[in-house]
Each structure stands twice: as C-alpha cells, then as structure tokens.
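Here comes just one.
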Amino acid sequence: MTERADAPVRILAAITMAFLVGMGRAQEAGESHEFTGKSGQKIVARVLGVSEDRRQMRILRQDGMEFDTEIVIFSLDDQQYVKDWMKAQASGGTVGSAAAAMPKDSFRLEVGITRIPGRSEKHREEFYTMEENENLFRIAIRNLSRDTLTGAKLEYAIVWRDSVRILFDENKQVWDFSSRVRDTPLAAVKKLGEAALDPIRFNGEGVVETSDVSIDEVLYEGNELFGQDELVGVKVRVLAPDGDVLHESDFGGAAIAAMSWDEIIALEDPRPAN
C-alpha cells in the first residue's frame, strides 16, 4: 500500500490513539455523533467547524481533545451528517431542524407499497362457508434527495367495498355473518393510520407496516358466492413537519388513483363486528 493510500487510516488512527493522553480536558456541551472510518474504526465526537473548501472539519472528541481531519475518510452517512450540520449552522438550528426547514420541492421520495397476506380462517355453519382473509401492507419510503428527511410523518388509508362481515355470536356460540342488501351498490369504507418516520438520509429507507383489514367472503352450499368484500386499494402520503404534502402514492387500480385524500376521509368507517 502506498503512503498516500495509508494516509486516511493513519489520520483516523492518530485521532483514536490520542484518547490515551487527553483525559485531562473537559468535554464541551453539544451534540455528539459516532463517526465511522472506512476501515471500520469508530469515534464519538462533536463537529466544531468545517473548512471553506469543505474538505476538512474540526472535531471535539469525548475526552476534550480537538483535531482537524479530512471529511472523506469517514463513511457516506457521516459525510451526509456533516452536510446536515453545515445547513443547521447556516439556519441557526440543529441538524434536524435544518432538514425540517427545507422546502417540500427539495425532497425526492420513492414509495413502494407491497401487500402482505395475513391470517386466513374458514368457518362452516349449516349451509354457509365463511372465510376471513387479513390483509396488511408494507410501505417503504426511500429518500433520493441529498438532504436528510427529518420530522416527517406517514399517513395511509386502506379502502375496500364492504359486502359481508363475519362474526362469532357469543350467545349462540356459532359463527355468523351480516351482509348488506343484495343487488345494491357496495359502500366503500376506509381504515386510516399514521406513523412518525425516523430521520431518513440520502438513499436511506424507512419502513412502516399498516394495521390489518379483513376482506371477507361468504359461500352458499360450498360454491355459490353469497357475498364478497372487494379491496379498492391503499393511498399513502408523506407529510413534512409543517403539514405540507411531500409525496403521495397509491396501490391498486384506477379507482383508488382517482380518489382524493379528502374524498377518502369522507368515506364511512367499517361496520362494527357485532
């Protein structure tokens, strides 16, 4: 290995080894961050400043020692942290507040929605076969922007057409179902949910799983369809801390794509189980 190639490793090693002789200095207050060198070495330190050419930074280690070091010797996540730190200094806030203050059009997000089949149960009572099929969804949010997405919130709405509702009659100790009037249009219902997102750095991913909904089916004499729920789809929104919509996606067909968020909110809630 050449002397030039060894330099980043030796710089980080020197910072780490100096801990042994720096115990006498007090640590200054402030936000600390665990930096990882490309060789795997780790150091917890606070950023004090960055050079005008943005190639070097001054850090304050936990033992109170200050050092100047090249930024490029650390991991890509750490380099992004330094960029966020510089934005925070410019805005007079913290690393998180700098990202939260960014305009919504500065973020480019990629959202993937995957259906996950859940529990499935069949019940037989007299002439009817009743089948419950749980469905939930995995929502993956990838940040394709250079800025860290901080303080964001995910909202989702699952929409389906409610035909039958399977339930267990505690008094009679039998399985039963309720249904809407046959040959009438099925009413669409919705189930809403939300989750706070952890900070997502450049090319990072946040994952949320929805709560489940039951898509039910009732057959008469084993093969004649009596009633069946119909999944319409899922609509997802990513919101900035101030409530602005950063991204909206949907999963399903044209029906869910054509529905606005306000139209979904106005839908009925599912019928209770009893």
Summary: The chain has two domains: 3-100, 105-265. The first strand starts at residue 33 and ends at 36.
